[in-house]
Specification:
Helix content: under 10%
Strand content: 25-35%
Number of strands: 6
Shape: globular
Radius of gyration: 13 Å
Length: 93
């Protein structure tokens, strides 16, 4: 899966988390569990064969430093997808 910025949208680094079912409303990806990845990167995910509710949450940095400024950054939710019908790319606003 490729992360791609929509035309006119910021590039840089984002954090991406995958959930089986929708993530809780107040979840944040600002921990080391979700390392920053550059927009334009290809990501590989290990998935169960028959999962029907896969979501991806993408979070942008909240400030100018993508290494430290994450708390409260803008988020974008993608899904639900099944493991057999994942998109080839996520287009980030």
């Amino acid at each position: 899966m490729t992360l791609r910025a929509a035309e006119g949208s910021p590039t840089g680094k984002v954090r991406v988390g995958m959930w089986f079912g929708p993530p809780l409303p107040d979840v944040a990806l600002g921990s080391r569990q979700f390392p920053p990845v550059p927009v334009g990167s290809e990501l590989e995910w290990l998935l169960p064969l028959d999962e029907a509710t896969i979501y991806f949450l993408v979070e942008h940095a909240s400030g100018p430093n993508p290494e430290t400024d994450w708390m409260g950054g803008p988020q974008q939710l993608f899904g639900p997808f099944s493991s057999r019908q994942l998109p080839g790319e996520l287009v980030l606003d």
